[in-house]
Amino acid sequence: MTLLEPQWKFLSDSWSMMFVGLIAWIGFFVLAYAHSYFHDSRDRLKFFPAIIAFALAMIGVVTFDDLILLFLAWEATSLISYFLIAFDPESPKARKSALQALVITGSGGLALLAALVLIYQQTGTLSLTVLLSQPELLIESPELPWIAGLVILASFTKSAQFPFHFWLPGAMTAPTPVSSFLHSATMVKAGIYLLYRFEPLLSSWWLFKPALVSVGLGTFAMMSFRSYFQKDLKSVVAFTTAGALGLMTALIGWGTETSLRAVFLFVIAHGLYKASLFFLVGHLDHQTSSKEVGAHYGLRQVWPKSFTVSIFALMAALGAGPFLGFVAKETFLFEFSHFTWVVILGLLFNNFSTCWIALRPYLGEKISHPHSQENFGLLWPVLGLTLTHLALGITISLWSPQFFGSALHLWHGFNLPLATSLVLLLATLWMLKAPVPTSPWSFHESPRFFQLWDGHLSVAKLWTQKTQNGSLTFYLFMVFAGACFLLMTHGSHFSVPSVTQVLGIELLIAIMVLTASVFLMIERRVFPLVLGLSLVGSAASLYFIYFGALDLAMTQLAVEALSLLFFVMVLKKVPHLLDRAKDPRWDSVLGRITRWSTSVLSGGLVFWILWVASSTQHPSQLRQYFAENSLPLGHGANVVNVILVDFRGLDTMGEITVLGIAAIGIWWMISKRTER
């Protein structure tokens, strides 16, 4: 297998199949939700194909065994998400948010590509199955720190970990069905999938676990705290999502059997309850045209069904028993006993923010009357996901030995994790009485990102103006100067060819060409330059004549004659071109020295290449084949002609076709000019 020949093999272990089930199940409810969310058929026609394509790309990420195919699916999710986030193309904010997400996740994709290239160089394989079955191939590699760092970078950008966390709240400009799918169960979980998959291969690097635990817990605490001060309910969900992803990252970095089991459970529970919360915010926004925190109150009296469904979804989100989240929460609370205060504070703000979404709009005696009634088409998907959450919690608690090899119970007695959960619940309910909070700090990552982005575009524009300035002389100088630089830095790797006997005619031709070349370097008038160029080409044709290549000599002389004729015709029509070309950059002393030195070095480069090429002998089977078969197969004694007409006839026909099309185009332009 080569790097560009991927193998179409698929992974079917529990980690991959769990993601496939999550993508398919939540995707079903997203499609059902979107049917009621979008009233315009054009929006549906634009949304459904894109979201299905995204789901297929995400399934490819979690099932492809070949890392090249995984990378292609990884980048496909970033590209499709760009169009989904910018669903409203007339919104400048949506376009900017989509660009921000694409740049950050796309940059992470480049890091992943670099990691895959290093993996292939070090192990000779791109199969995940082979790598996981023979981890020593990668563990013993001297490039392991680079590979691990690049994989971590790619995962952090995709899963919105610090310092790349800000793209996720910015992506909330997308419609709710997009956010509920991309930013709860699929795209943002791709980084978690990759870290979990590579953990057995990269955990031997000493910095792998500390990086994941510290960044993960830091992101969890920071994003949970910031969710407390958001004014937009959708932003609240986004910040708590980034915080939960940080907790998953830390659990993977912790690396114990219990923590990895907690990741498995938490990925499922988080995907289900977070999609439900997105659905609830979307329902509120869809029916009232407002998703501002504190804008609604007392809705339980006018929306009783919504209130009931929200309470049900809130229990799942807070990890109450017997929901699946309870098992996941108890597991990671036990595992992170060393970081009790960090986890407790993060969960406190996370739970409070969750209550803002699912509970606060329905509390209070005063009623804010919405413009429309509750929409059950937007509520039953919430109920469906919450029931799934409940069913999985009961199922896993009953059959956990078959699934995990050990028991996971919904009741462990009165212990520290349970006490922590109760304290968090009481504190959350007490905080609900407080007014809408105001942040004492100002966070503006997105404006800083676009300042950097605009600065990068300005530098690129300035560089383009300097290098793409319309001067052919400058372009040729850059090309030849770059070639000379490569010769000077890498020329020592070439062996010096042996010098054979130089014939007198060869020396004479070389003197003619060198004389004409020196003349071209000194002369600046246009017409003498044209004559000098023709002299160089005509001198080269003498070399062809001496060695019997009369057809090449005739072609060379014909080209030189026609070129000279065309130049004369142009100069006759545009006589001011005969004046001496003036360019202060090249007419100065420094400019002339630069031009002459570059010309000499470029000529030396071409001479060196031709010398090495002509002195290197490679056995050729084609020479003998054409010599033996030109007459019996092509019925021609001229080997070159037979090659052009018979052996490479299609190539010649293509060249003739191109020349014919060019001739027709010239004839058409001349005829149009004649008519005018």
Topology:
Elements: H1 14-37, H2 41-63, H3 67-85, H4 92-123, H5 128-133, H6 136-139, H7 144-158, H8 167-170, H9 176-182, H10 190-202, H11 208-227, H12 233-254, H13 257-288, H14 304-317, H15 324-335, H16 340-358, H17 380-404, H18 416-431, H19 445-467, H20 472-490, H21 504-522, H22 526-546, H23 550-573, H24 584-587, H25 589-615, H26 621-634, H27 639-647, H28 649-675
Helix pairs in contact: 1-2, 1-9, 1-13, 1-17, 2-3, 3-4, 4-7, 7-10, 9-13, 10-12, 11-12, 11-16, 12-13, 12-16, 13-14, 13-15, 13-17, 14-16, 14-17, 15-17, 15-18, 16-18, 20-25, 21-22, 22-23, 26-27, 27-28
What features would you describe in this structure?
This protein has helices at residues 14-37, 41-63, 67-85, 92-123, 128-133, 136-139, 144-158, 167-170, 176-182, 190-202, 208-227, 233-254, 257-288, 304-317, 324-335, 340-358, 380-404, 416-431, 445-467, 472-490, 504-522, 526-546, 550-573, 584-587, 589-615, 621-634, 639-647, 649-675. Helix 20 crosses helix 25. The chain has 4 domains: 1-161, no CATH class; 206-435, no CATH class; 463-617, no CATH class; 618-676, no CATH class. The model has no long low-confidence stretch (mean pLDDT 81). The longest helix has 32 residues, at 92-123. The chain is an all-alpha fold. The protein contains 28 helices and no strands.
